[in-house]
Write a structure and sequence with these properties.
Helix content is 42%, strand content 18%. It contains 13 helices and 11 strands. Strands 1, 2, 3, 4, 5, 6, 7, 8, 9, 10 and 11 form an 11-stranded mixed beta sheet that branches. Helix 2 links the parallel strand 1 and strand 2. Helix 6 packs across helix 7 and helix 7 crosses helix 13. The longest helix is centred in the N-terminal third of the chain and has 29 residues.
């Protein structure tokens, strides 16, 4: 009897194990791991451009994509504040300087996109923390009518901006508040050297009416004639010039040499939906995506090998540029903005 009972118990145990294994296999086949369905992006490019690019990506992939448009400095502050509970996975657009700061603070994930292989090394991080999606030169936008009233020719050099007749007639973004403003500051420091560069920025401050919080914030004031000159990214100024102000606005880049922004993309460390983030990253490096910029007035030079640079920016291609050191600029941002604020009282 005991022998029969033992056999029955063994059979029961064996059947239970088979059932359990069957359930495990069935669970795996019926409910496989699903792909990512939602992606949140922090963007520092135009609202309409951002939303169009996100919408196009959503149509192509079926991944629900939300975007929040902020300034580059604001994005850095938010990513830093959300370090332990990231709500976004992609940082899209704006100069790469704050990206470098974020990478140094452990806020970004490394990713080497296969679409980045053809991009010039100076427009991407060798460790894979960010990759360039466009390039834009620092330049001057000038109101010809206002300059005529002042009896001043349109500035064509950094030295021209120190003309006493331009006192209170210049605006630019704040290096402390705006990533665009910081590229302007870093460009001057690299061109002239730190001591001479800070001396120049202090002298320039005497002619500045106001520092704006956004990079293109000065352009509207130049159009209205509130000031004669704005220091900004030249492609932003050309966009306004093309919108009915060809006779009013003139756009120059400084003859001594100018710096440039490398607009970048990065994946936020520990953000949700990392797979979707990598998919968006790959797509952002294609000509299909980058060719959308000019549809929304963004006239930068592109990094995608199959992209098409805007006709309107051809005149800028001959500009004299410095060998802008993005790593150096990013590493010294806190130090240089603090010193600028102290010297200028802003």
């Amino acid at each position: 009897m005991k022998k029969v009972l033992g056999i029955l118990v063994s059979m029961l145990i064996a059947s239970t194990m088979v059932f359990a294994q069957g359930k495990k296999e069935e669970t795996g086949s019926v409910a496989p791991a699903e792909g990512p369905k939602h992606l949140t992006i922090y963007s520092a490019v135009y609202d309409d451009e951002t939303h169009a690019i996100c919408q196009k990506f959503q149509e192509k992939t079926g991944i629900k994509t939300d975007c929040v448009v902020l300034g580059g400095g604001e994005i850095l502050a938010r990513v830093r504040a959300e370090k332990d509970n990231a709500t976004a996975s992609v940082w899209y657009g704006g100069p790469c300087d704050p990206f470098i700061t974020a990478a140094n603070q452990g806020l970004l994930a490394q990713y080497h996109s296969p679409n980045a292989e053809s991009i010039d090394a100076k427009y991407k991080d060798s460790n894979g923390y960010w990759t360039g999606i466009y390039i834009g030169y620092v330049g001057f936008v000038c109101n010809t009518k206002r300059l005529q009233e002042l009896g001043v020719d349109a500035p064509k050099s950094w030295a021209d901006l120190l003309n006493p007749k331009l006192k209170g007639e210049i605006m630019m973004a704040s290096p402390a508040a705006s990533s665009t403003g910081y590229v302007i500051l870093a460009s001057v420091l690299q061109l002239m050297g730190e001591d001479a560069g800070f001396k120049y920025m202090t002298d320039l401050n005497n002619n500045i009416l106001q520092y704006t919080e956004r990079g293109g914030g000065c352009i509207s004031s130049v159009v209205s004639g509130e000031v004669a000159v704005g220091i900004c990214f030249a492609h932003d100024a050309i966009t306004r010039q093309q919108n009915g102000y060809q006779d009013l606005l003139v756009v120059n880049t400084p003859s001594e040499g100018t710096g440039y922004e490398t607009g970048a993309i990065a994946i936020i460390k520990d953000g949700p939906d990392q797979e979707a983030a990598r998919m968006f990253y790959d797509w952002a490096l294609t000509g299909e995506c980058q060719d959308m910029y000019q549809q929304y007035g963004a006239l930068q030079f592109l990094t995608a090998k199959d992209g098409h640079n805007p006709e309107a920016t051809k005149a800028l291609a001959a500009s004299k540029t410095i060998n802008y050191d993005t790593a150096w600029a990013g590493a010294h941002k806190a130090e240089f903005t603090a010193k600028w604020a102290q010297l200028t009282g802003n």
